[in-house]
Amino acid sequence: MTIVENLSRPVSDVEREYAAALERDAAQLRRIVDLLQRVDVDDPLLLDVAEKLDALSEHLENPIDTVTETIRNPGWRHDPVSGVENAIAPPIVLEAGPDGTVTAEVEFGLPYQGPNSFVHGGISAMVMDHVLSAATAPQAGVIFTAQLTVRYHRPLPLFVPLTIAARLREREGRKIWATGEIVVDGKVAVSAEGLFIEPRPKAAQ
């Protein structure tokens, strides 16, 4: 389902249609990226696919209609972790529990591989930064990462369901601390803690 929300004005049917198209486009590009990791390097189809992708790229560089930027206002729709309009995002769908804990289930495929058959450590760090900041969002709204500490306890396998969780630890003025982990088969594979800063009010800047 396509959802356009968090806008400060009503959303038109045309904007919803464009948003739905962007979401479908990103989903198909995500699928293509994954499939390109699987196809044999000597498959003749690759030549045909390359030509079609070239044509598509040229079309997008010279669009017939320019899409308004207003439908992209909700940043979460195109960020690299949970953005449904971003083809490099898994995407990760976060849920907030009654205790404020943010959780998600995800399964990483070949586009996120580092060591053979395992998730790249940089992907784990990016995901933890995102989820930790989301855990503080109900308290702070807009925040910026000041420090992120990531510990790798064991490799994260590809093609295996993983559970991600994060929670607010404490707050001191504009400083907010959060902790979280990625769990596989009931064991912590990656843990992280982050310090986030809430911007000063504009009047105080």
TrEMBL record:
Q: Which CDD domains match?
A: PaaI_thioesterase
Q: Which InterPro entries match?
A: HotDog_dom_sf, THEM4/THEM5_acyl-CoA_thioest, Thioestr_dom
A biological-process GO annotation? fatty acid metabolic process
Keywords of this protein's UniProt record, alphabetized? Apoptosis, Cell membrane, Cell projection, Cytoplasm, Fatty acid metabolism, Hydrolase, Lipid metabolism, Membrane, Transit peptide
One MF term in GO for this entry? hydrolase activity
As for membrane topology, the entry says:
Peripheral membrane protein
Specify whether Electron transport is a keyword of the entry. no
Q: Which reaction does it catalyse?
A: decanoyl-CoA + H2O = decanoate + CoA + H(+); hexadecanoyl-CoA + H2O = hexadecanoate + CoA + H(+); tetradecanoyl-CoA + H2O = tetradecanoate + CoA + H(+); dodecanoyl-CoA + H2O = dodecanoate + CoA + H(+)
Question: Where does it localize?
Answer: Cell projection, Ruffle membrane; Cytoplasm; Membrane
Primary location recorded for the protein, binned into one broad class: membrane
Question: Has the keyword Cytoplasm been applied to this entry?
Answer: yes
Report the residue ranges that make up the Thioesterase domain in this protein: 118-182
A Pfam family of this chain? 4HBT
- A GO CC term assigned to this protein in UniProt: membrane
Specify the superkingdom.
Bacteria
The catalytic activity of this protein is classed by the Enzyme Commission as: 3.1.2.2
Family designation: Belongs to the THEM4/THEM5 thioesterase family.
Q: Would you tell me the protein name for this molecule?
A: Acyl-coenzyme A thioesterase THEM4
Organism of this sequence: Rhodococcus rhodochrous J45
The taxonomic lineage of its organism, from the top, reads: Bacteria, Bacillati, Actinomycetota, Actinomycetes, Mycobacteriales
